[in-house]
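Run log // design_07
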């Protein structure tokens, strides 16, 4: 493999957490998400000779994950559920603070789990990993305008759901 191809694939491998996290939005299961992400990388490797290395490989990987997830959902006829991994260091470790953080995370997880998978995927790509609108829209198979509407509706639904549980949280 020539150095340019090697560098492009190394960069794609560096994005493993993003690809895995995106797969997790569709599967709701860590092992299934890992399988999905690995399958996407295998498909990318199989198409190695026909890839345009002038373009980043991440959008192609994300599109492959989306298509594989849709295919699996169709064949299994199962609804995908998800929980966003919100693990982060806590500013305070007091029991009261920990309980509050756990409750907030639970509300957010429930609100996100109630969204359709493509809405969760859009939120994950744009808000979660700060992917640009163009690349996120490409990965989700929609136009940028549709992505903006999807994000607006998803954010609004999350705010509404949390607001119903915690009045004034909007």
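design_07 sequence
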């Amino acid at each position: 493999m020539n150095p340019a191809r090697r560098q492009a694939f190394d960069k794609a491998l560096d994005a493993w957490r993003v690809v895995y996290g995106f797969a997790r939005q569709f599967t709701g299961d860590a092992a299934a998400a890992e399988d999905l992400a690995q399958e996407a990388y295998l498909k990318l490797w199989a198409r190695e000779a026909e890839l345009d290395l002038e373009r980043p490989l991440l959008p192609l990987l994300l599109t492959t994950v989306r298509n594989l997830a849709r295919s699996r959902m169709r064949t299994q006829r199962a609804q995908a559920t998800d929980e966003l991994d919100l693990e982060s260091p806590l500013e305070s470790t007091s029991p009261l603070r920990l309980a509050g953080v756990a409750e907030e995370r639970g509300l957010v997880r429930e609100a996100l789990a109630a969204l359709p998978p493509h809405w969760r995927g859009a939120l994950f790509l744009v808000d979660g990993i700060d992917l640009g609108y163009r690349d996120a829209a490409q990965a989700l198979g929609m136009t940028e305008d549709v992505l903006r509407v999807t994000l607006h509706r998803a954010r609004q639904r999350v705010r509404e759901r949390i607001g119903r549980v915690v009045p004034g949280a909007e």
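Residues 26 and 70 are 8 Å apart (CA to CA).
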